[in-house]
Amino acid sequence: MVALEKVDLIWNISLVCPWDCQFCCTDAVHVKQVGDSVSMREFGLSHQRNLVLHEVDYSEPSLRRLEAQGIKPNAFDIALYDRQLRKVELSYEQKIKVLNNIIPLSAEIDFAGGDPLACYENFLVIQEASKIFGRDNISITSTGATLSRYSLSEIASAIGKYEFTFDEPIERIPINRPLGYNSANLCVARKLSGLNLKTKAQMPLHSGNMDPSRISLLYNSLHEAEIDELLLMRVFPVGRGSQNYKNDTQRNDYLAAINHFRNLEKKLIYPKVRLQCALKHLDQIDYDENPCDLMRNSFGINPRGDLLISAWATNPIGDPLDDAFVLGNISENSFESLLQNEKARNYFTKLDLNWGHCKIFSFVFSSSKRSDSLFEKSDPLYT
Q1: What sign results for the dihedral spanned by CA atoms 164, 167, 173, 179?
Q2: What mean pLDDT do residues 244-270 have?
Q3: Backbone phi, then psi, for 234, in 5-degree steps?
Q4: Which residue(s) pair with 39 in the sheet?
């Protein structure tokens, strides 16, 4: 029987988002209000859907629940309601079942998306998770663009850590992000950094941030905002971004960038520089355990409630990257029972076969695309 002391879950609780980043790793649904309608671009931003506001049935339970909280449903709430009706995202009741199905395991949950705070219903779920698992075990990864409907103290009371993407200098014209994306994210994180919670910037390394001058601008901005931690990451060939993914960042490029960030850390002390598991093997340290934490304690949950062996396992239209990554649906089954199924038990015996390799990259760059591809030594960074 597989037993985990504590699990680290990234729950992409909804794909609804105010941004339309072209290399989004989860294929977020771009939502905005246009006049008296809600515009939604889904499934690789290729499908346009419009909802007329005066035709929305506000007596439906999911919208009535918000009004009972004194919240007027906005475009994001209505988009979520529409996606729930189409069964592409979980209902509020199903989300609560997910929380209950994680019990009795001890868990840290990072609520991500999309933007988890775009829809108020998701904040109600986050508050419930905070009650069950404790505030210090709850974090959110948000863009900050929709925080105006919340008080900062309200958010700080429910989470122990605020995480945000920050990957291009606000002083430069962005290469990979919409204009204003990074500045909005940093602005909110700066405000939250003084409210008795930790702050962490997530920075996928790419052409917009690996030049030494840009690295200095980025680190100094985070230092001035008093951000606690900086997680350096890889750009993954998943989600909407997989369509334009270029495997053109070489080992020496990563090492040079990481070294520059670490030198700035030595000088300025914070934020503390950390490496994502997919980069850790570059350090060539004798780790006691495999630096890839997939299934050791790390799992993902997608908006439909699928328990994934990796939160990154998303295809270009927001579905699981492959059935090989899906253990079952956690809104219908307990976490513990899903860990005991045949697929999970088989995987647990193979986790160290490609020590240090990221299993997402191993699968994507495998020639066979079978479940065993997860355990091949085919991550291009380490081959």
Answers
A1: negative
A2: 93
A3: -95, 150
A4: 32, 50
pLDDT at 178: 86
pLDDT at 52: 95
What stretches of 163-287 show up as alpha helix (H) in DSSP? 181-192, 212-224, 251-268, 277-280
| Cβ neighbours, 10 Å, residue 61 | 11
| Token pair listed for 86 | 């189409």
Question: What are the sequence ranges of the domains in the chain?
Answer: 7-283, 288-382
Tokens 């931690």, located at residue = 229
Q: Edge-to-edge strand order for the sheet containing 47-52? A: 16-17, 29-34, 37-42, 47-52
Task: Return the residue matching tokens 């700066």.
Answer: 190
* pLDDT value for 1: 46
Would strands 106-112 and 47-52 be described as parallel, antiparallel, or unpaired?
unpaired
SS (H, E, C) 91-144: CHHHHHHHHHHHCCCEEEEEEECCCCCCCHHHHHHHHHHHHHHCHHHEEEECCC
Q: Residue 357: what residue type?
A: H
* 158 CB-contact burial (10 Å; exposed 0-12 / middle 13-18 / buried 19+): buried
Give how far Cα 134 sits from Cα of 102, 148, 158, 365, Å. Answer: 14, 25, 9, 39
What pLDDT is stored for residue 3 in this prediction? 63
**CATH code for the domain defined by 7-283:** 3.20.20.70
- Distance between start and end Cα atoms, the chain: 34
Crossing angle (nearest 10°) for helices 120-133 and 61-68: 70
Percentage of residues of the chain with pLDDT beyond 70: 99
Total residue length of the chain:
383
Tell me the two tokens of residue 370. Answer: 């079978």
Q: What is the pLDDT of residue 2?
A: 59
How far apart CA 102 and CA 310 sit, in angstroms, is 16
Q: Which of 26-40, 182-196, 226-240 is the least confident region?
A: 182-196
Q: Write down the pLDDT at residue 316.
A: 92
pLDDT of 151-174, one tens digit each?
A: 999 999 999 999 999 999 998 888
**CA–CA separation, 23 vs 175, rounded Å?**
11
Cα(327)–Cα(298) distance, rounded to whole angstroms? 13
